Automatic annotation (TrEMBL):
Keywords: Aminotransferase, Pyridoxal phosphate, Transferase. InterPro entries: DegT/StrS_aminotransferase, PyrdxlP-dep_Trfase, PyrdxlP-dep_Trfase_major, PyrdxlP-dep_Trfase_small. The lineage of its organism: Bacteria, Pseudomonadati, Bacteroidota, Flavobacteriia, Flavobacteriales. Its EC number is 2.6.1.-. Belongs to the DegT/DnrJ/EryC1 family. This is DegT/DnrJ/EryC1/StrS family aminotransferase.
């Protein structure tokens, strides 16, 4: 991660196909396209890659989460359970539907604690959204069991986890719906883009219509299509889809590189007894997009993060009070700063955020350092990095 590190001829060729006929829109203009349907092709490619019956491309990962929830009927006043550790987009996407994000603790998988989920379920809970953060996953069997028992949806925000698997199945394809992002810093990028995947035909049809103003996409005359329900515009463009098409074909190559680099760094750090690693559930295989380590406590983790920085080890973060990935930095959401009025129901539904404490999440995020695994490092650079990391950690532990 990120895929842009390895842009080349394949991406250029795909984009040129689109520019040669000038049809930048994914729907219509059949006569002008010279047979190029990049968005359609990318959807088919993703159906195979993600072993999912249906894929709907959209304009971003944030849009994917909103569209997925909307497609399954989640809306005003419904509660959606999500983890305290995620990119802020997961929260925003729920809010956009007038639904209520219910934040619960994470565990050592760095995503939803099944126990915390179970405790948070109310009659208003419509969905549980697990966020497969940093290339790994939650305990999917436990989460699925809870959702089945309470008859609620399981949605996967797999925006950071393309290429990871659980019991041999691609992450994103396990829940009722899965969401992906292809923004500029993700493993597969197309600039801006996202995807909703599902095996449920009805959810797919809803996502297809909803993401294009409610168009039913029947027939080849766009002007004559009917609109069974209200929709918006979350379409992806052909130019973006073209870049994504080149990138997705390279996914196995990218995952191999990530795994190789990750393994070198992990083996080096494993020599230090005080360093432990995020738990990958049994049957899980990471995408190796990040290496997540734990130090003994917050203070040590902050010092190590600083020592990494001063020793030239970039792209490593302690998210506790830094960046946009943990609720400590979400004061604008806790204070409900909005440009426009928010419904009383949502306001009341979010009151808990002002006072609720998350000791388990603080415990894990406080001790964690997340290190991005890059695709463009040479082998020598990875070994040099491993040495620098080991030295930095040992120096902090000894002082
Ligand atoms: C990137 C990301 C998103 C949002 O994707 P965009 O394409 O940037 O809108 C949502 N959730 C997670 C976990 C992400 O990392």
């Amino acid at each position: 991660m990120p895929g842009f590190e390895l842009f080349g001829d394949l991406e250029r060729q795909q984009v040129n196909d689109v520019l040669d006929n000038g049809v930048l829109m994914r729907y219509g203009f059949d006569g002008m396209r010279n047979g190029h349907w990049k968005a359609k092709e990318l959807e088919i490619e993703l159906e195979n890659t993600l072993q999912s019956k249906h894929v709907q491309l959209v304009s971003s990962g944030t849009a994917a989460v909103s569209v997925a929830l909307a497609a399954a009927g989640v809306g005003a006043g419904d509660e959606v359970i999500m983890p305290t550790f995620t990119f802020v987009a997961s929260f925003e996407a729920i809010m956009m539907l007038g639904a209520i994000p219910i934040l619960v603790d994470i565990d050592d998988t760095l995503t939803l604690s099944p126990k915390a989920v179970e405790n948070a379920i109310t009659p208003k809970t419509k969905a549980v959204m697990v966020v497969q953060m940093c290339g790994s996953m939650g305990n999917m069997d436990a989460l699925q069991t809870i959702c089945n028992k309470h008859n609620i949806l399981l949605v996967e925000d797999a925006c950071q986890a393309i290429g990871g698997t659980y019991n041999g199945r691609p992450l994103g394809s396990i829940g009722d719906l899965g969401c992906f992002s292809f923004d500029f810093v993700k493993t597969i990028t197309c600039g801006e883009g996202g995807a909703v995947i599902t095996n449920n035909k009805e959810y797919y049809t809803n996502a297809d219509h909803y993401s294009d103003h409610g168009h039913d996409h029947v027939g080849s005359d766009r002007g004559a299509e009917t609109h069974p329900f209200l929709g918006y515009n979350f379409r992806i463009s052909e130019l973006h889809a073209a870049v994504g098409l080149a990138q997705v074909k390279r996914l196995p190559e990218f995952i191999d590189i990530q795994k190789k680099n990750y393994t070198i760094l992990r083996e080096a750090l494993s020599q230090i007894p005080e360093v432990t690693f995020r738990k990958v559930p049994d049957g899980g295989e990471e995408s190796y997009a990040f290496l997540n380590l734990f130090l003994p406590d917050l203070d040590t983790a902050l010092k190590v993060a600083e020592a990494f920085k001063t020793n030239g080890v970039d792209a490593c973060w302690n998210y506790y009070s830094n960046n946009w990935h943990y609720l400590n930095k979400w004061d604008h959401l806790k204070d409900l700063k909005s440009l426009f009025p928010i419904s009383t129901e949502v306001k009341e539904g979010l009151e808990y955020l002002k006072t609720k404490e998350y000791p388990e999440s603080d415990h894990y995020i406080g001790r964690n350092i997340s290190c991005l695994i890059k695709l463009s490092w040479t082998e020598a650079e990875v070994y040099e990095r491993a040495n620098k990391m080991v030295t930095a950690v040992k120096t902090v532990l000894e002082t």
